[in-house]
Amino acid sequence: MSKTFVVVGAGLPGIAASLALANAGREVVLIDSAPEIGGLLRSYEVDGFAFDYGTHFANRTGIADLDELLFGSIEGEWLEFPVLRAGNVWNGTINSISDNPDLNSLGPERHDRCLAELLAAPGWRGQREPDNAREFLTAEYGPALVAGFFDPVLKKFTGRFPESLHHRANLLFNLKRFAVLDASATRELKCSERFDGRVAYHHRDHFEGHRPCLYPSRGGIGRWIEQLERKLRSAGVRILTGARIERIVTSDGKVTELTVDGSSLPIVTLLWSVAPAIFSRMAGIELPSVRPAIRSTVLAGIECNRPFQSDCHYLTVFDPDFAAFRVTLYQNFRSNSDRRFGATIEFMVDPDEVRARDWPKLAEAELLRMGLINSDTKVLTRHEKIVVNGFPVLTNESVAALASQSSGVQRYSNVRLLGRAAGEGWFLDGLIRSAHEIALETAR
Predict the structure, then answer these.
(1) Does domain 57-63+76-98+203-214+294-392 have CATH number 1.25.40.10?
(2) How far apart are CA 196 and CA 192, in angstroms?
(3) What is the pLDDT of residues 18-60, one digit of tens each?
Protein backbone atom coordinates (compact mmCIF):
# COMPACT_ATOMS: atom_id res chain seq x y z
CA MET A 1 0.00 0.00 0.00
CA SER A 2 1.26 3.46 -0.84
CA LYS A 3 1.87 5.84 2.00
CA THR A 4 -0.99 8.17 2.86
CA PHE A 5 -1.96 11.18 4.90
CA VAL A 6 -3.92 9.87 7.88
CA VAL A 7 -6.37 11.99 9.87
CA VAL A 8 -7.48 10.57 13.21
CA GLY A 9 -10.73 11.99 14.54
CA ALA A 10 -13.70 12.76 12.31
CA GLY A 11 -15.11 15.81 14.01
CA LEU A 12 -15.34 18.99 11.94
CA PRO A 13 -11.61 19.86 12.26
CA GLY A 14 -10.69 16.38 11.01
CA ILE A 15 -13.26 16.57 8.21
CA ALA A 16 -12.03 20.01 7.10
CA ALA A 17 -8.40 18.83 7.12
CA SER A 18 -9.28 15.70 5.13
CA LEU A 19 -11.15 17.69 2.49
CA ALA A 20 -8.27 20.17 2.17
CA LEU A 21 -5.70 17.37 1.77
CA ALA A 22 -7.82 15.51 -0.78
CA ASN A 23 -8.46 18.73 -2.67
CA ALA A 24 -4.66 19.16 -2.87
CA GLY A 25 -4.38 15.75 -4.52
CA ARG A 26 -3.21 13.79 -1.49
CA GLU A 27 -4.27 10.25 -0.61
CA VAL A 28 -6.22 10.54 2.64
CA VAL A 29 -7.56 8.10 5.21
CA LEU A 30 -9.94 9.47 7.86
CA ILE A 31 -10.27 7.30 10.99
CA ASP A 32 -12.74 7.46 13.85
CA SER A 33 -13.73 5.01 16.57
CA ALA A 34 -17.37 6.10 16.44
CA PRO A 35 -19.80 4.40 14.06
CA GLU A 36 -20.40 7.71 12.25
CA ILE A 37 -18.34 10.79 11.44
CA GLY A 38 -19.20 14.22 12.82
CA GLY A 39 -18.76 13.74 16.56
CA LEU A 40 -21.75 15.33 18.32
CA LEU A 41 -22.66 17.34 15.24
CA ARG A 42 -25.35 14.80 14.44
CA SER A 43 -29.10 14.30 14.57
CA TYR A 44 -31.47 11.43 15.26
CA GLU A 45 -35.19 10.93 14.64
CA VAL A 46 -38.05 10.13 16.98
CA ASP A 47 -41.41 9.52 15.31
CA GLY A 48 -40.11 11.21 12.19
CA PHE A 49 -38.96 14.39 13.99
CA ALA A 50 -35.24 15.24 13.91
CA PHE A 51 -33.52 16.17 17.17
CA ASP A 52 -29.93 17.43 17.30
CA TYR A 53 -27.25 16.47 19.82
CA GLY A 54 -27.42 19.95 21.33
CA THR A 55 -27.55 23.41 19.78
CA HIS A 56 -25.61 23.40 16.52
CA PHE A 57 -25.47 25.88 13.65
CA ALA A 58 -22.93 26.15 10.85
CA ASN A 59 -20.88 29.32 10.44
CA ARG A 60 -19.17 30.56 7.33
CA THR A 61 -15.48 30.91 8.15
CA GLY A 62 -14.73 33.89 5.92
CA ILE A 63 -12.00 31.87 4.16
CA ALA A 64 -13.16 31.38 0.59
CA ASP A 65 -11.40 28.06 -0.05
CA LEU A 66 -12.53 26.59 3.25
CA ASP A 67 -16.12 27.77 2.84
CA GLU A 68 -16.16 26.16 -0.60
CA LEU A 69 -15.03 22.87 0.94
CA LEU A 70 -17.64 23.03 3.69
CA PHE A 71 -20.58 24.57 1.87
CA GLY A 72 -19.85 24.59 -1.86
CA SER A 73 -22.29 22.73 -4.14
CA ILE A 74 -24.82 22.38 -1.33
CA GLU A 75 -25.77 26.07 -0.99
CA GLY A 76 -29.40 25.47 -1.89
CA GLU A 77 -29.85 23.14 1.06
CA TRP A 78 -29.42 25.81 3.74
CA LEU A 79 -31.52 28.23 5.70
CA GLU A 80 -29.49 31.34 6.54
CA PHE A 81 -29.84 33.51 9.64
CA PRO A 82 -28.03 36.87 9.67
CA VAL A 83 -28.39 36.95 13.48
CA LEU A 84 -29.09 34.06 15.84
CA ARG A 85 -31.83 34.84 18.33
CA ALA A 86 -30.06 33.57 21.43
CA GLY A 87 -31.51 34.34 24.84
CA ASN A 88 -30.92 33.38 28.45
CA VAL A 89 -32.69 32.56 31.68
CA TRP A 90 -31.42 34.19 34.87
CA ASN A 91 -33.00 35.33 38.13
CA GLY A 92 -36.20 33.57 37.18
CA THR A 93 -36.82 35.54 33.98
CA ILE A 94 -36.25 35.01 30.27
CA ASN A 95 -34.10 37.56 28.45
CA SER A 96 -35.26 37.09 24.86
CA ILE A 97 -33.19 39.89 23.31
CA SER A 98 -29.66 38.85 24.30
CA ASP A 99 -27.66 35.83 25.40
CA ASN A 100 -25.71 37.99 27.88
CA PRO A 101 -26.91 38.23 31.49
CA ASP A 102 -28.44 41.59 32.43
CA LEU A 103 -27.38 42.96 35.81
CA ASN A 104 -30.55 45.05 35.94
CA SER A 105 -32.41 41.85 36.83
CA LEU A 106 -30.61 41.92 40.21
CA GLY A 107 -32.46 45.04 41.35
CA PRO A 108 -30.97 48.55 41.78
CA GLU A 109 -28.85 47.93 44.89
CA ARG A 110 -27.12 44.75 43.72
CA HIS A 111 -26.84 46.07 40.16
CA ASP A 112 -25.05 49.20 41.35
CA ARG A 113 -22.67 47.27 43.58
CA CYS A 114 -21.73 44.80 40.85
CA LEU A 115 -21.37 47.59 38.29
CA ALA A 116 -19.18 49.71 40.58
CA GLU A 117 -16.82 46.78 41.17
CA LEU A 118 -16.81 45.81 37.49
CA LEU A 119 -15.84 49.34 36.44
CA ALA A 120 -13.19 49.60 39.16
CA ALA A 121 -11.71 46.14 38.61
CA PRO A 122 -8.09 46.52 37.46
CA GLY A 123 -8.04 43.44 35.24
CA TRP A 124 -5.36 40.79 35.45
CA ARG A 125 -1.97 42.49 35.20
CA GLY A 126 0.28 39.96 36.87
CA GLN A 127 3.54 38.78 35.35
CA ARG A 128 2.35 35.21 35.89
CA GLU A 129 -0.77 33.37 34.89
CA PRO A 130 -3.57 33.40 37.49
CA ASP A 131 -3.60 30.42 39.82
CA ASN A 132 -7.24 29.67 39.07
CA ALA A 133 -10.47 31.10 37.71
CA ARG A 134 -11.42 32.79 40.97
CA GLU A 135 -8.23 34.84 41.04
CA PHE A 136 -8.66 35.88 37.40
CA LEU A 137 -12.40 36.61 37.54
CA THR A 138 -12.09 38.65 40.73
CA ALA A 139 -9.43 40.82 39.10
CA GLU A 140 -11.56 41.24 35.96
CA TYR A 141 -15.06 41.69 37.43
CA GLY A 142 -14.83 42.20 41.21
CA PRO A 143 -15.91 39.93 44.10
CA ALA A 144 -19.65 40.74 43.94
CA LEU A 145 -20.06 39.35 40.42
CA VAL A 146 -17.88 36.36 41.23
CA ALA A 147 -20.04 35.51 44.25
CA GLY A 148 -23.36 36.41 42.63
CA PHE A 149 -22.84 35.03 39.12
CA PHE A 150 -19.66 33.08 38.39
CA ASP A 151 -19.74 30.95 41.55
CA PRO A 152 -23.25 29.52 41.04
CA VAL A 153 -23.11 29.39 37.24
CA LEU A 154 -19.72 27.66 36.95
CA LYS A 155 -20.71 25.26 39.74
CA LYS A 156 -23.86 24.43 37.81
CA PHE A 157 -22.12 24.03 34.44
CA THR A 158 -18.90 22.31 35.55
CA GLY A 159 -19.66 20.87 38.99
CA ARG A 160 -16.80 22.94 40.45
CA PHE A 161 -16.27 26.36 41.95
CA PRO A 162 -13.82 28.79 40.25
CA GLU A 163 -10.89 28.00 42.55
CA SER A 164 -10.85 24.47 41.08
CA LEU A 165 -10.93 25.65 37.46
CA HIS A 166 -8.39 26.94 34.97
CA HIS A 167 -8.42 30.71 34.74
CA ARG A 168 -9.96 30.67 31.25
CA ALA A 169 -12.69 28.13 31.99
CA ASN A 170 -15.39 30.77 31.62
CA LEU A 171 -14.55 31.13 27.92
CA LEU A 172 -15.91 27.65 27.16
CA PHE A 173 -19.34 29.11 27.91
CA ASN A 174 -18.63 32.57 26.48
CA LEU A 175 -19.18 34.11 29.92
CA LYS A 176 -17.49 37.46 29.38
CA ARG A 177 -19.93 40.36 29.16
CA PHE A 178 -22.86 41.73 31.17
CA ALA A 179 -25.59 44.18 30.24
CA VAL A 180 -25.61 47.15 32.63
CA LEU A 181 -27.46 50.46 33.03
CA ASP A 182 -29.33 51.22 29.79
CA ALA A 183 -28.63 51.00 26.06
CA SER A 184 -27.36 54.58 25.79
CA ALA A 185 -24.89 54.26 28.68
CA THR A 186 -23.74 50.93 27.27
CA ARG A 187 -22.77 52.50 23.95
CA GLU A 188 -20.60 55.01 25.80
CA LEU A 189 -18.96 52.36 27.99
CA LYS A 190 -18.17 50.19 24.98
CA CYS A 191 -16.18 53.04 23.44
CA SER A 192 -13.61 52.29 26.13
CA GLU A 193 -11.20 49.44 25.36
CA ARG A 194 -11.07 48.74 29.08
CA PHE A 195 -14.81 48.14 29.41
CA ASP A 196 -15.70 46.80 25.97
CA GLY A 197 -14.71 43.25 26.91
CA ARG A 198 -16.86 43.28 30.07
CA VAL A 199 -19.97 45.19 29.01
CA ALA A 200 -22.58 43.76 26.63
CA TYR A 201 -25.07 45.43 24.35
CA HIS A 202 -28.60 45.22 25.72
CA HIS A 203 -30.01 43.93 22.43
CA ARG A 204 -28.30 41.59 19.97
CA ASP A 205 -29.34 43.93 17.13
CA HIS A 206 -27.08 46.67 18.54
CA PHE A 207 -24.01 44.55 17.74
CA GLU A 208 -22.82 44.88 14.15
CA GLY A 209 -20.30 42.05 14.01
CA HIS A 210 -22.63 39.06 13.63
CA ARG A 211 -21.63 36.38 11.15
CA PRO A 212 -24.47 34.64 9.32
CA CYS A 213 -25.37 31.18 10.57
CA LEU A 214 -26.62 28.29 8.47
CA TYR A 215 -28.90 25.35 9.16
CA PRO A 216 -30.07 22.60 6.81
CA SER A 217 -33.40 23.33 5.14
CA ARG A 218 -34.57 19.79 5.85
CA GLY A 219 -34.03 17.58 8.88
CA GLY A 220 -31.44 18.44 11.51
CA ILE A 221 -27.80 19.52 11.57
CA GLY A 222 -26.81 15.90 10.90
CA ARG A 223 -27.77 16.46 7.26
CA TRP A 224 -24.68 18.67 6.96
CA ILE A 225 -22.51 15.78 8.10
CA GLU A 226 -24.23 13.51 5.60
CA GLN A 227 -23.45 16.04 2.87
CA LEU A 228 -19.84 16.35 4.00
CA GLU A 229 -19.45 12.57 4.05
CA ARG A 230 -20.58 12.45 0.42
CA LYS A 231 -18.05 15.16 -0.41
CA LEU A 232 -15.29 13.26 1.36
CA ARG A 233 -16.03 10.07 -0.55
CA SER A 234 -16.32 11.94 -3.85
CA ALA A 235 -12.90 13.48 -3.18
CA GLY A 236 -11.44 10.00 -2.70
CA VAL A 237 -11.08 10.07 1.08
CA ARG A 238 -11.14 6.59 2.59
CA ILE A 239 -13.30 6.70 5.72
CA LEU A 240 -12.80 4.12 8.49
CA THR A 241 -15.49 4.37 11.18
CA GLY A 242 -15.87 2.07 14.15
CA ALA A 243 -12.10 1.63 13.82
CA ARG A 244 -9.63 0.78 16.58
CA ILE A 245 -6.02 1.90 16.44
CA GLU A 246 -4.03 -0.91 18.02
CA ARG A 247 -0.46 0.27 17.57
CA ILE A 248 1.60 3.27 16.52
CA VAL A 249 5.00 2.45 14.99
CA THR A 250 7.73 5.09 15.18
CA SER A 251 11.25 5.34 13.76
CA ASP A 252 13.85 8.14 13.69
CA GLY A 253 11.52 10.72 15.18
CA LYS A 254 8.61 9.94 12.86
CA VAL A 255 5.46 7.87 12.90
CA THR A 256 5.81 5.35 10.11
CA GLU A 257 2.61 3.33 10.35
CA LEU A 258 -0.52 2.57 12.32
CA THR A 259 -2.07 -0.79 12.98
CA VAL A 260 -5.82 -0.37 12.58
CA ASP A 261 -8.08 -3.35 13.26
CA GLY A 262 -5.24 -5.73 12.47
CA SER A 263 -4.14 -4.03 9.23
CA SER A 264 -0.97 -2.00 8.69
CA LEU A 265 -1.39 1.55 7.41
CA PRO A 266 1.91 3.23 6.32
CA ILE A 267 1.76 7.00 6.49
CA VAL A 268 3.50 10.16 5.31
CA THR A 269 1.88 12.55 7.77
CA LEU A 270 -0.43 11.98 10.71
CA LEU A 271 -2.98 14.63 11.69
CA TRP A 272 -4.31 13.80 15.13
CA SER A 273 -7.50 15.46 16.47
CA VAL A 274 -8.50 13.19 19.35
CA ALA A 275 -7.06 13.07 22.87
CA PRO A 276 -3.24 13.18 22.69
CA ALA A 277 -3.17 10.84 25.69
CA ILE A 278 -4.36 8.08 23.36
CA PHE A 279 -1.42 8.73 21.03
CA SER A 280 1.01 8.74 23.93
CA ARG A 281 -0.28 5.42 25.20
CA MET A 282 -0.16 3.80 21.75
CA ALA A 283 3.32 5.16 21.04
CA GLY A 284 4.68 4.07 24.41
CA ILE A 285 5.40 7.61 25.66
CA GLU A 286 5.70 7.69 29.45
CA LEU A 287 3.70 10.61 30.83
CA PRO A 288 2.03 11.30 34.17
CA SER A 289 -1.47 9.87 34.15
CA VAL A 290 -4.20 12.40 34.92
CA ARG A 291 -7.80 11.32 34.83
CA PRO A 292 -9.64 13.92 32.70
CA ALA A 293 -12.50 15.77 34.34
CA ILE A 294 -15.61 15.15 32.26
CA ARG A 295 -19.27 16.02 32.59
CA SER A 296 -21.92 13.92 30.95
CA THR A 297 -24.60 15.49 28.80
CA VAL A 298 -28.20 14.38 29.06
CA LEU A 299 -30.38 15.39 26.13
CA ALA A 300 -34.09 15.40 26.87
CA GLY A 301 -36.24 15.68 23.77
CA ILE A 302 -39.91 16.55 23.89
CA GLU A 303 -42.56 17.32 21.29
CA CYS A 304 -45.62 19.38 22.17
CA ASN A 305 -48.97 20.02 20.56
CA ARG A 306 -48.53 23.80 20.41
CA PRO A 307 -45.70 26.33 19.95
CA PHE A 308 -43.29 27.21 22.71
CA GLN A 309 -43.71 30.69 24.17
CA SER A 310 -40.50 32.23 22.85
CA ASP A 311 -39.13 33.31 19.49
CA CYS A 312 -35.53 32.50 20.50
CA HIS A 313 -33.56 29.91 18.60
CA TYR A 314 -32.06 28.77 21.88
CA LEU A 315 -31.74 29.87 25.50
CA THR A 316 -28.83 29.34 27.90
CA VAL A 317 -30.10 28.73 31.42
CA PHE A 318 -27.74 30.46 33.85
CA ASP A 319 -30.25 30.35 36.68
CA PRO A 320 -29.06 27.81 39.29
CA ASP A 321 -32.68 27.19 40.34
CA PHE A 322 -33.07 25.25 37.09
CA ALA A 323 -31.14 22.08 36.29
CA ALA A 324 -31.27 22.66 32.52
CA PHE A 325 -28.21 24.07 30.78
CA ARG A 326 -29.69 24.99 27.40
CA VAL A 327 -33.01 24.81 25.56
CA THR A 328 -33.18 24.56 21.76
CA LEU A 329 -36.51 25.48 20.12
CA TYR A 330 -36.61 23.99 16.63
CA GLN A 331 -39.83 25.75 15.63
CA ASN A 332 -37.99 29.06 15.44
CA PHE A 333 -35.31 28.13 12.91
CA ARG A 334 -36.69 25.24 10.88
CA SER A 335 -39.22 25.24 8.09
CA ASN A 336 -42.25 24.15 10.10
CA SER A 337 -44.89 23.47 7.50
CA ASP A 338 -45.93 20.30 9.34
CA ARG A 339 -46.60 22.28 12.55
CA ARG A 340 -44.53 20.10 14.85
CA PHE A 341 -43.10 21.67 17.98
CA GLY A 342 -40.03 19.96 19.39
CA ALA A 343 -37.26 21.02 21.76
CA THR A 344 -34.03 19.63 23.12
CA ILE A 345 -33.25 20.42 26.74
CA GLU A 346 -29.62 19.80 27.75
CA PHE A 347 -28.44 18.93 31.24
CA MET A 348 -24.76 18.74 32.20
CA VAL A 349 -24.14 16.42 35.12
CA ASP A 350 -21.42 14.30 36.65
CA PRO A 351 -21.27 10.81 35.06
CA ASP A 352 -22.61 9.09 38.17
CA GLU A 353 -25.76 11.27 38.04
CA VAL A 354 -27.04 10.37 34.58
CA ARG A 355 -29.51 7.80 35.94
CA ALA A 356 -30.52 9.86 38.95
CA ARG A 357 -33.54 11.63 37.41
CA ASP A 358 -36.36 11.25 34.95
CA TRP A 359 -34.82 13.91 32.72
CA PRO A 360 -37.66 14.29 30.18
CA LYS A 361 -40.14 14.78 33.03
CA LEU A 362 -37.81 17.29 34.67
CA ALA A 363 -37.39 19.07 31.31
CA GLU A 364 -41.16 19.38 30.97
CA ALA A 365 -41.50 20.74 34.51
CA GLU A 366 -38.76 23.31 33.98
CA LEU A 367 -40.19 24.47 30.66
CA LEU A 368 -43.45 25.08 32.50
CA ARG A 369 -41.69 27.03 35.28
CA MET A 370 -39.82 29.12 32.71
CA GLY A 371 -43.05 29.96 30.94
CA LEU A 372 -42.01 28.32 27.69
CA ILE A 373 -45.08 26.08 27.86
CA ASN A 374 -48.27 26.47 29.86
CA SER A 375 -50.46 24.08 31.81
CA ASP A 376 -52.69 23.52 28.78
CA THR A 377 -49.79 22.33 26.62
CA LYS A 378 -49.84 18.62 25.91
CA VAL A 379 -46.50 16.80 25.62
CA LEU A 380 -46.84 14.29 22.81
CA THR A 381 -43.50 12.48 23.11
CA ARG A 382 -40.58 12.38 25.54
CA HIS A 383 -37.20 10.69 25.29
CA GLU A 384 -33.60 11.05 26.41
CA LYS A 385 -30.11 10.52 25.03
CA ILE A 386 -27.01 10.29 27.22
CA VAL A 387 -23.55 11.35 26.07
CA VAL A 388 -21.26 9.97 28.77
CA ASN A 389 -18.17 11.95 27.74
CA GLY A 390 -20.12 15.05 26.86
CA PHE A 391 -18.09 18.03 28.01
CA PRO A 392 -14.56 18.63 29.33
CA VAL A 393 -14.01 20.42 32.62
CA LEU A 394 -11.04 22.78 32.41
CA THR A 395 -9.24 22.24 35.68
CA ASN A 396 -5.61 23.31 36.07
CA GLU A 397 -4.64 19.65 36.24
CA SER A 398 -6.40 18.74 32.99
CA VAL A 399 -4.97 21.74 31.12
CA ALA A 400 -1.43 20.96 32.35
CA ALA A 401 -1.86 17.28 31.43
CA LEU A 402 -3.03 18.20 27.92
CA ALA A 403 0.00 20.48 27.45
CA SER A 404 2.34 17.69 28.58
CA GLN A 405 0.66 15.13 26.33
CA SER A 406 0.71 17.52 23.38
CA SER A 407 4.43 18.17 23.79
CA GLY A 408 5.01 14.41 23.81
CA VAL A 409 3.18 14.03 20.51
CA GLN A 410 4.99 16.95 18.91
CA ARG A 411 8.37 15.28 19.30
CA TYR A 412 7.49 13.39 16.09
CA SER A 413 8.19 15.58 13.07
CA ASN A 414 5.41 14.23 10.85
CA VAL A 415 2.59 14.49 13.41
CA ARG A 416 0.36 17.55 13.73
CA LEU A 417 -2.30 18.09 16.33
CA LEU A 418 -5.68 19.44 15.29
CA GLY A 419 -8.61 20.93 17.15
CA ARG A 420 -8.76 20.78 20.94
CA ALA A 421 -6.05 18.11 20.92
CA ALA A 422 -3.60 20.95 20.29
CA GLY A 423 -4.67 22.68 23.51
CA GLU A 424 -5.34 25.90 21.63
CA GLY A 425 -8.60 27.64 20.76
CA TRP A 426 -11.98 27.57 22.40
CA PHE A 427 -14.61 27.77 19.69
CA LEU A 428 -15.32 25.38 16.85
CA ASP A 429 -15.02 27.84 13.97
CA GLY A 430 -11.52 28.81 15.07
CA LEU A 431 -10.51 25.16 15.41
CA ILE A 432 -11.80 24.46 11.87
CA ARG A 433 -9.82 27.37 10.40
CA SER A 434 -6.67 26.21 12.18
CA ALA A 435 -7.14 22.60 10.98
CA HIS A 436 -7.56 23.82 7.40
CA GLU A 437 -4.40 25.90 7.61
CA ILE A 438 -2.39 23.00 9.05
CA ALA A 439 -3.65 20.67 6.33
CA LEU A 440 -2.59 23.09 3.60
CA GLU A 441 0.85 23.40 5.19
CA THR A 442 1.38 19.64 5.34
CA ALA A 443 0.11 19.13 1.78
CA ARG A 444 2.79 21.38 0.31
Answers:
(1) no
(2) 6
(3) 999 999 999 999 999 999 999 989 999 999 999 999 889 998 8
